[in-house]
């Protein structure tokens, strides 16, 4: 896990974060509206420099953002302070144990789930999210799309099957739609917009 943190830390230090677009992703706004997801306790895992977490807080969600890179988290705290928004930011690795404030009603991740390379890791990540959600709580994930053909750099690409295999044991998948990330890159990278609801514990 230290290796993962180092990898991301280097990207932040080098300013090599094409995902950091300086605004909340429109996909988040669209899904909240389309599925009528009302404010509750929200968790943004791998929140980066905080634009989506801050957006959720501004929408009335009691929001926690977590990160493994302290530099990103510091930037998120500064942004929230500048905007006078109350948002909890915690240095925390979701794979290592529970986040303070659980259970949450809504979990969001943009580019965190897709950064895990093996099915085992992705399943553990999905299970960790399910464990942080209230009964019937939602998880919205924005995931790089394996149907994107490209040469250069860009987000990790996952197939629909890879997503379903990891998520379905713990969640009812409500939406799995091919789309595009909100991005400053041209063309914007393709993504999957995945909305899932936690299965009832039996
Ligand atoms: C592609 S970036 C996206 C950042 C942010 N969600 C955004 O959209 O700007 C993925 C982020 O997940 C963080 N991350 C990776 N693994 C994590 C973990 N296990 N727990 C919390 N954050 C993690 C990384 O440090 C990185 O900032």
Description of the structure:
By secondary structure, this protein is α/β, with parallel strands linked by helices. The chain has a single domain (2-198), classed as Rossmann fold, CATH 3.40.50. 32% of the residues lie in helices and 26% in strands. The protein is built from 6 helices and 7 strands. The chain has a 7-stranded mixed sheet, sandwiched between helices. The mean pLDDT is 96. It binds S-adenosylmethionine. S-adenosylmethionine (SAM) is lined by residues 4, 8, 19-20, 45-48, 52, 66-69, 72, 93-95, 110-112, 115.
How many domains in all? 1
Helix proportion range: 25-40%
Radius of gyration: 16 Å
Q: How much is the average pLDDT?
A: 96
The unique ligands bound to this protein are: S-adenosylmethionine
Which sequence of strands runs across the widest sheet? Answer: 3-2-1-4-5-7-6
| Terminal Cα span | 32 Å
Overall SS class: alpha/beta
Instruction: Report the top-level CATH class.
Output: Alpha Beta
Uncertain residue segments: none
Strand elements, count:
7
Number of helices: 6
Main sheet properties: 7 strands, mixed
Identify the overall geometry.
globular
Topology-level CATH name: Rossmann fold
Quick overview of this protein structure:
The protein has helices at residues 2-14, 26-34, 51-58, 70-82, 119-132, 160-167, and strands spanning 41-45, 62-67, 88-91, 104-110, 133-144, 171-180, 190-198.
Q: Topology of this structure?
A:
Layout: H1 2-14, H2 26-34, E1 41-45, H3 51-58, E2 62-67, H4 70-82, E3 88-91, E4 104-110, H5 119-132, E5 133-144, H6 160-167, E6 171-180, E7 190-198
Parallel strand pairs: 1-2, 1-4, 2-3, 4-5
Antiparallel strand pairs: 5-7, 6-7
Bound molecules: S-adenosylmethionine (SAM).
S-adenosylmethionine binds at residues 4, 8, 19-20, 45-48, 52, 66-69, 72, 93-95, 110-112, 115.
């Amino acid at each position: 896990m230290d290796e993962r943190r180092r990898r991301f830390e280097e990207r932040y230090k080098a300013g090599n974060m094409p995902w950091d677009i300086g605004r909340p992703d429109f996909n988040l706004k669209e899904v909240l509206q389309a599925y009528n997801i009302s404010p509750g306790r929200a968790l943004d895992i791998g929140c980066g420099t905080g634009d989506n977490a801050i957006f959720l807080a501004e929408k009335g969600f009691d929001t926690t953002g977590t990160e493994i890179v302290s530099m990103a988290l510091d930037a998120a705290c500064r942004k929230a302070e500048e905007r006078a928004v109350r948002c909890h930011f915690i240095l925390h690795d979701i794979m290592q144990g529970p986040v303070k404030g659980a259970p949450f009603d809504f979990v969001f991740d943009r580019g965190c789930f897709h950064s895990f390379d093996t099915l085992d890791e992705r399943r553990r990540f999905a299970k960790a999210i399910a464990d942080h959600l209230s009964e019937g709580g939602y998880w919205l994930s924005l995931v790089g799309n394996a149907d994107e053909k490209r040469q250069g750099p860009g987000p990790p690409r996952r197939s629909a099957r890879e997503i379903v295999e990891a998520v379905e044991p713990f969640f009812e998948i409500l939406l799995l739609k091919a789309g595009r990330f909100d991005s400053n890159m041209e063309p914007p990278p393709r993504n999957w917009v995945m909305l899932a609801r936690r299965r009832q514990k039996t």
